[in-house]
Prior knowledge:
single chain, mainly beta, Purple Acid Phosphatase, chain A, domain 2, five-stranded mixed sheet, 3 helices
Amino acid sequence: MNQQSAIRIGVIADTHGLFDPAIPQHFRHVDHILHAGDIGDRSVIEQLEKISPVTAVSGNVDENEQSGFPSEAIIELAGRRIAIRHIVYKGGKLTKDGRAFLARERPDICVFGHTHQPKAEWFSKTLLFNPGSAGSKRFSLPRGIGLLTIRKEKVLPKLIRLNDNVNRQNRSRSIKLPKKKGEMT
């Protein structure tokens, strides 16, 4: 992709098997979607793929790589190196493994999930971006997704709050991601 082209990336995490009907509206003009783990149900990815190409990683509820998704991914879009990993922060702090991952991969952008807390902040020259949780409301945290717009030399992050009262009928009911090593999907 040409570095001068502006692209929009939809960012989602912690769906836990729920596909919010507001997602297609928010992601309708994106060029790519990143899912930062805790997918919970393969049909969530299938529904996202109807909108745009998807790069997804597994999270701790997905039983990591047994889910069929890697635990981390590195892609390049619009000349930017983007790292995707479920756990980078824990307990409000960058984890030791998260620091090592950033040092090893040296991404321009790191997309992550796990904490359910929306975050868009710079760590040295890396934008750390967590869209929050798009699954059912948990704790006292808002539900959300995100957008990244990459235009020339700028990366513009945007956090989008989702309605906390999503209809539970939208919970996916198809094939669950495997829970045990060797289990079929």
